[in-house]
């Protein structure tokens, strides 16, 4: 599933970044070499990161 249309960031990429230590959407995007643009994706990315942190 696509999380960020502006940057073409997929859910699995955000999950991988979270597993690698990203604690926020901004950190996850930076780990992927990108940054949030319009910001509409940030709540969804944050939700995915929170899910991954809960599993860990």
Automatic annotation (TrEMBL):
The chain positions of domain BFD-like [2Fe-2S]-binding read 2-51
Organism equals: Sphingomonas desiccabilis
Which Gene Ontology MF annotations are present? 2 iron, 2 sulfur cluster binding; metal ion binding
How is this protein named in the record? Bacterioferritin-associated ferredoxin
Query: Is Electron transport found in the keyword set?
Result: yes
One Pfam family from the UniProt entry?
Answer: Fer2_BFD
Coiled-coil parts of chain = none
PANTHER family listed in its UniProt record: BACTERIOFERRITIN-ASSOCIATED FERREDOXIN
What are the UniProt keywords, alphabetically? Answer: 2Fe-2S, Electron transport, Iron, Iron-sulfur, Metal-binding, Transport
Out of the domains of life, which is the source?
Bacteria
Q: Which family does it belong to?
A: Belongs to the Bfd family.
